[in-house]
Specification:
single chain, alpha/beta, Rossmann fold, 8-stranded mixed sheet, 8 strands, globular
Length: about 220
C-alpha cells in the first residue's frame, strides 16, 4: 500500500497558512507523519496526541518536534499561545465542541485555525467504514464548526490517493490499518462495493478531505 495523502495534506496546509516564524500546535499528530513536514518550516511545533505509544515512537524518529501526550479537549497551554493551530484529521475523534473552544482560547489574536477532516464521500473513507464507520462523528464535527464562535474564511475539498498493488494488498492493508484480523464477511462486502475495480493492478482509491481556515470572531 502507498498512501500519498500526507504530502498532499502538507501542501494544502502551506497554501492556507504561513508556517515560517510561527509558533504552531498540531492536534492529533499520531506518529508524526505530517508533523515532520510542518516542522521543516515552522519556528516551533508542539504536536499532541492521546496515544502514548504513537507519541513515544514519534519522539524516537523525529527530533525537531515537541511531542506530547494530550487531547484538544483540554489543552495544557496558556491563553494566546499559538499563531497557528492545526487539526490533522482529528477533530471528529474527540468532543469537537470542546476542542474548538480550547483552540480558540489558546490562539493568539490574529491567529488562525486549520481543520483538515475526511469527508464521508471519499472511496477510502467508504471502504474503511465497513470496519469503523465514522460518518456521524465527521458530520458532528462540521456542526460544531458551524455553531462555534469561529468564522470560516476559506474552505476547499481536495483529493489524494491510496495505491494498492492488488486485491489481497488492499484487504490486508484495510484490516491492518485498524489492527484487526481479517474477517471474511467484511472482506466480501468491500470487494462487492468496489466491483470491477477490485481486479485492477494497481488499485487506486481516492481519499477525499476538506480543509477549513478559521479565525476567531470577537
Amino acid at each position: 500500500m502507498f498512501d500519498y495523502s500526507d504530502k498532499v495534506i502538507f501542501e494544502k496546509i502551506t497554501q492556507y497558512a504561513v508556517l515560517k516564524n510561527k509558533k504552531i500546535l498540531e492536534i492529533g499528530c499520531g506518529y508524526g507523519r505530517i508533523s515532520t513536514f510542518i516542522a521543516s518550516e515552522a519556528c516551533s511545533l508542539i504536536a499532541i496526541d492521546p496515544d502514548q505509544n504513537a507519541i513515544e515512537n514519534a519522539r524516537k524518529v523525529i527530533s525537531a518536534v515537541d511531542f506530547r501526550v494530550g487531547t484538544g479537549e483540554n489543552l495544557a497551554f496558556s491563553d494566546n499561545s499559538f499563531d497557528l493551530i492545526i487539526f490533522t484529521l482529528s477533530l471528529h475523534h474527540q468532543n469537537s465542541q470542546k476542542a474548538l473552544k480550547e483552540a480558540a482560547r489558546t490562539l493568539k489574536q490574529g491567529g488562525k485555525i486549520l481543520v483538515i477532516e475526511p469527508t464521508v464521500e471519499g472511496e477510502v473513507e467508504q471502504v474503511f467504514a465497513f470496519l469503523h464507520n465514522e460518518n456521524i462523528e465527521i458530520q458532528e464535527a462540521q456542526k460544531s464548526i458551524a455553531n462555534s464562535n469561529l468564522s470560516i474564511i476559506d474552505s476547499a475539498v481536495f483529493k489524494a490517493k491510496w495505491e494498492f498493488s492488488n486485491k489481497n494488498d488492499l484487504i490486508h492493508s484495510v484490516f491492518q490499518y485498524y489492527n484487526k484480523p481479517c474477517q471474511q464477511d467484511i472482506a466480501e462486502q468491500i470487494i462487492n462495493f468496489l466491483g470491477k475495480k477490485i481486479e485492477l493492478k494497481p488499485i487506486i482509491l481516492q481519499d477525499t478531505m476538506i480543509i477549513q481556515s478559521l479565525i476567531c470572531v470577537n
